[in-house]
Amino acid sequence: MLGAMTTSTAAGDAAGAVRPMRADARRNYERLLAEARRAFAEHGTDASLEDVARRAGVGIGTLYRHFPNRHALMNAVFQDALASLLTRSAELASADRPCGALVEWLRALITHAGEYRGVARALMSASHDSGSALSQCSVPLREAGSRLLSRAQAAGAVREDVSITDLLQLTNAIALAAEQAPADPELADRLLTLTLRGLKARAA
To answer: Which residues form the HTH tetR-type domain (predicted)?
Structure first.
């Protein structure tokens, strides 16, 4: 997991090294993470943190020692999805069709953003807040997407005035719209298709 275990860093570590967790602290951490995933899947990312702690068999104080706020817990939960998206972007970075690679990655991003209710809204909010723990997700995603977008633009397939920041906001907005319409499973793909039509570079 990318950086998720840094939550128990000792404050006095002047060199910035991460102190390994004690065995009991690690067990608590893993139980909290597992219960958070279940709670987010059942109730969305607004799920009660007190309930997460109770189901993990610890007090709310223990939860906050590991995860200072909701966004910190969400960041830890999302690390597996983040790793998957970053791996996929690296695989697509040398694809023969740069525009197709970008589209495939955006679809994967929307799929992951739709895994838990509230994710898309939280990521949209975190994109404007560099102090949010969720920026640990949004920053590497922006960097990965920028590389794919630049290749598509260099190939003349995407307009030069398109930015990765706008694209990520659009994909989160699409995921949020789809979240509000669970009876229409094709909505996200239709909205992405409409968006992509506006990205194409015009013929000279």
So the answer is: 26-85
Residue 7 covered by a domain? no
Residue 15 lies in a domain: no
CA distance to 7, 23, 70, 107, 175, per residue, from 2 (Å)? 12, 20, 18, 22, 24
pLDDT of 54 above 70: yes
Cβ atoms of residues 108 and 102 within 8 Å: no
pTM equals: 0.78
Around Cβ 142, how many Cβ atoms within 10 Å? 17
Q: Looking at residue 15, what is its pLDDT?
A: 36
Give me the domain span that covers residue 54: 23-68
193 and 172 in a common domain: yes
**Whose structure tokens read 């977008």?**
149
SS3 content of the chain, % helix, strand, coil (to 5): 65, 0, 35
- Hey, how many other C-beta atoms are within 10 angstroms of the C-beta on 36? 25
Contact 105, 98 (CB under 8 A): no
How far apart (Å, rounded) are the C-alpha atoms in residues 99 and 30?
39
- For residues 92 and 114, state if they share a domain: yes
Residues with Cβ within 8 Å of 29's Cβ and at least 6 positions away in sequence, in order, are 5, 7, 8, 21, 66
Alpha carbon distance 105, 91 (integer Å):
10
Examine the domain organization and report whether 151 and 64 are in the same domain. Answer: no
- From the list 109, 176, 94, 116, the residue with the least C-alpha distance to 140 is 109
